[in-house]
Automatic annotation (TrEMBL):
<keyword id="KW-0285">Flavoprotein</keyword>
<protein>
    <submittedName>
        <fullName>FAD-binding dehydrogenase</fullName>
    </submittedName>
</protein>
<dbReference type="InterPro" id="IPR027477">
    <property type="entry name" value="Succ_DH/fumarate_Rdtase_cat_sf"/>
</dbReference>
<dbReference type="Pfam" id="PF00890">
    <property type="entry name" value="FAD_binding_2"/>
</dbReference>
<keyword id="KW-0560">Oxidoreductase</keyword>
<feature type="domain" description="FAD-dependent oxidoreductase 2 FAD-binding">
    <location>
        <begin position="9"/>
        <end position="548"/>
    </location>
</feature>
<dbReference type="InterPro" id="IPR036188">
    <property type="entry name" value="FAD/NAD-bd_sf"/>
</dbReference>
<dbReference type="InterPro" id="IPR014614">
    <property type="entry name" value="KsdD_DH"/>
</dbReference>
<dbReference type="InterPro" id="IPR003953">
    <property type="entry name" value="FAD-dep_OxRdtase_2_FAD-bd"/>
</dbReference>
<dbReference type="GO" id="GO:0033765">
    <property type="term" value="F:steroid dehydrogenase activity, acting on the CH-CH group of donors"/>
</dbReference>
């Protein structure tokens, strides 16, 4: 639709989830909004469309029905223990404020939102959650440390496409009514600054490209544009497909060396371009070294974008070994417990991959795959299909497909054969079957009782006290080398880029903050480009279910701030 005769009150750069939420709130208030995006309309909703649709709620009806006792006090304790905010500066909103000054305030506000308003806000728009509540990032073993003390991961009925739908539909209705213009294939190259205020955008009109959602598109130019408005909102996402930029900011001293082999959990258009463009206009980037790359990445056997990767969302039972064949230790050696802790152990071994060793019984109950397209039963809201795929014997179809076709999977009837296959895939040292057998047998001896000193076995028993985990998520404890639970399966796990936790610094209205603590007139940011709020609401670790939620919360805050 032409933008030539449309005079917007607000320009939104990025048609992902945060941009849609901000636009929805602005349109509700009668504001005219121009939304610009470098991709085509098929990509409306951005990364959120590809997501599993997990949302963190605190003390929800779903939690209470599953016998889970939660509270905002417990959630805030967990958030603080995970974020570990340690860059607070002098405590003033000025040059010495510290990079965590605004993120900590955003975090406090977000936990309150997750407890009070978030579920009702989304429910009124038509979103529904499955009754089972998942337990993501189960923690590092300390009450005041990283992790969720209780299950809080609410899976959307319809996954990511449904989260996108509830905002895209009202935005498209506002488009039909003339309040909103969606200008696709418009790549912003510059923010227009006059007298210290951002007053518009300039950029390149890209050639038409009818590629399907997620497919890398052309960057050939077809023209130029310039548009002006009283405010510009940047909602352009993170840097997850810009591996060079990720490696430049990689926290080597804290986590370990940047991986040589990195696969992408986000499409190619997630390039981080707008961060530098916003900085040039006076905004401040903070917490660049905080990012959320996963260690359970597998190469997609049916890729959409370059280096397309899928994350395994594991239950706690797979045994986890580094590239040398040493079992990971502590709670960070328990799958699904402590992502950054696991990464430190993996990279400390001198290689950028690790191994799961598990059984068919484990994969059938404990392997889920990230992505809306990997969960067609939930994405399609098909109850019959859901029952067949999740409750029937055997692993869900997409999991079995990866086991059969995925380049990272090895299946064997005995351990010697399994290790031979693992060594064919290894990018580093060859594994010794005797060394693996010794560690597996030691762990197997621990499952003869309902108690144990092995921290992973303890975590399994604890997990099965959750109704969700016992019913659909965690396999009954058994010996890995028991043929009755075979065959044996090994999975080579690669490091997968996903979310950037730092970003453009903003106040609680989403207005960008300059280096001296003043506000940048006319410039706002929301979503991942703003660290999901303030420039890094998660601190060092994410509790999961908070990325979509952070886009919603920050987009809503900006929309409401600019609505009057």
């Amino acid at each position: 639709m032409s933008t030539d005769t449309f005079t917007p009150d607000v320009i939104v750069v990025g048609a992902g989830l945060a941009g849609l939420v901000a636009t929805h709130e602005l349109a509700l208030a009668g504001k005219r909004v121009l939304v610009l995006d470098q991709e085509n309309r098929a990509n409306l909703g951005g990364q959120a469309w590809w997501s599993l649709g997990g949302l963190l709620f605190v003390d929800s009806p779903e939690q209470r029905r599953m016998g889970i006792t939660d509270s905002p006090e417990l959630a805030w304790q967990d958030w603080q223990g995970s974020a570990q905010f340690d860059r607070l500066g002098d405590g003033t909103d000025g040059p010495g404020r510290g990079e965590d000054f605004w993120p900590q305030q955003w975090a406090r506000a977000y936990v309150d939102f997750a407890h009070r308003d978030k579920r009702a806000y989304l429910h009124d728009l038509g979103l529904r959650s499955l009754p089972f509540v998942g337990w993501a990032e189960r923690g590092d073993g300390r009450a005041t440390g990283h992790g969720n003390s209780v299950p809080r991961f609410h899976l959307t009925w319809g996954t990511g496409p449904e989260v996108v739908r509830i905002f895209a539909e009202p935005v498209e209705r506002a488009e039909a009514d003339g309040l909103v213009r969606l200008a696709f294939r418009h790549q912003v190259d510059e923010l227009v600054v006059e007298d210290g205020a951002v007053v518009g955008v300039r950029g390149t009109v890209l050639v038409d490209d009818e590629s399907k959602r997620g497919v890398k598109s052309s960057r050939d130019a077809a023209g130029e544009f310039e548009h002006r408005a009283a405010a510009v909102v940047v909602t352009s996402g993170g840097i997850g497909h810009n591996h060079e930029l990720m490696r430049r900011s990689w926290p080597t001293e804290r986590v370990g060396p940047a991986p040589e082999h990195l696969i992408s959990g986000v499409p190619a258009h997630v390039d981080g371009r707008m961060q530098g463009i916003a900085e040039t206009a006076g905004a401040t980037m903070v917490n660049r070294d905080r990012m959320w790359a996963y260690v359970e990445g597998i190469h997609n056997w049916d890729p959409v974008w370059p280096d397309h990767a899928i994350r395994i969302l594991p239950g706690p039972s797979s045994m986890w070994f580094d590239a040398t064949g040493k079992r990971l230790e502590g709670m960070s050696g328990v799958p699904g417990a402590d992502s950054i802790g696991a990464m430190k152990q993996i990279l400390a071994a001198g290689h950028d991959y690790s191994w799961f060793v598990l059984t068919q019984s484990m994969i059938e109950k404990e392997f889920a795959l990230s992505g809306s397209e990997q969960n067609p039963d939930i994405t399609g809201k098909d109850l019959k299909f859901l029952a067949q795929s999740r409750l029937a014997k055997g692993a869900p179809g997409p999991v079995e497909a990866f086991k059969e076709h995925g380049v990272d999977f090895v299946v064997a009837d005995d351990l010697d054969e399994l290790v031979t296959g693992m060594n064919e895939l290894a990018r580093g040292p060859k594994l010794d079957a005797f060394v693996l057998r010794h560690q597996i047998e030691a762990r197997d001896r621990e499952v003869d009782n309902s108690f144990s000193k092995d921290i992973q076995v303890m975590a399994i028993h604890n997990a099965r006290r959750s109704r969700t985990d016992r019913l659909v998520r965690v396999a009954r404890p058994h010996k890995v080398l028991d043929p009755a639970h075979g065959p044996l399966i090994a999975v080579r796990l690669n490091i997968l880029s996903r979310k950037t936790l730092g970003g453009l610094e903003t106040d609680l209205d989403g207005q960008c903050v300059a280096a001296d603590g003043s506000r940048v007139p006319g410039l706002y940011a929301a979503g991942e480009v703003a660290g999901f709020g303030g420039g890094g609401v998660h601190g060092y670790n994410a509790l999961e279910g908070t990325f979509l939620g952070g886009c919603i919360f920050s987009g809503r805050a900006v929309g409401k701030a600019l609505a009057p």
